[in-house]
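sanity check this chain:
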Amino acid sequence: MGLRPWFARGACMLTIEKLEKRYRTGDRALNGVSFTVDRGQVVGLIGPSGAGKSTLIRCINRLVEPTAGKILLNGTDLTTLNGTALRKMRRRIGMIFQEYALVERLTVMENVLSGRLGYVPFWRSFLRRFPEKDVEKAFALIDRVGLSDHVDKRADALSGGQRQRVGIARALEQDPELLLVDEPTASLDPKTSRQIMRLICEVCRERSLPAIINIHDVSLAQMFVDRIVGLQAGLVVFDGPPDALDEKALTAIYGEEDWNAMRKEKEDEARVEEETAAFAQAREKRMAGLV
């Protein structure tokens, strides 16, 4: 898993200042959220349902319009952009979705190349004639995420874990300056969830790419991310390294609960999953020996 440095790695890439989101009903999804993300830092965003995690992610890339505050990416205030400037900004932000957001009838390669749609003329995208350097990069990314044997396979023929790997490669094909990840493991089994989280964190560190991961699995976040930000009712109630996320902090984020019992239950589930997978693999090998 490698080191998870808590110290700043370099220049601040993303700064969120007093961000608010109020709906017409008067409800506040975000209530003065402020924090920064440094170059290459992977931040896990946790909190109960309705805490504002998905709203925050979508405010950053302006899929949801913030009511007040600033979002600075490399010094550019994203809340001030419109039209062409906003479209160009979105090219700089890679997004990985819970439900993959792939085009089912397209191949792995075609889905990954869709990460370049914001950079090429319409006729090239319509005819699927991408520049050679984009295709070469797509091949390299597909290999990096472990799908080199599935380049020409349609997305609807892939497993959930494989689809999420395509989503990771597509986001990286954009050459993003920031990666936003929304519940990447919610639809995956425990073993695949760890593989996907490990892959996301590895590629971010390889590229010094900052990332914010909205994740519901606290134990998984603690295993992989550099830093955790906890939201409760649109407020930041925790911001620190994973090992500082003690029972008191978890209670502030989620409310009263037997957190030690929950951790043990998660660990037991992961252990059973691993043992089941190992048994199935051993059985396959024995069966293969009989053929």
In short: Residues 1-9 have pLDDT under 50 and may be disordered. The longest strand covers residues 12-22. The radius of gyration is 20 Å.
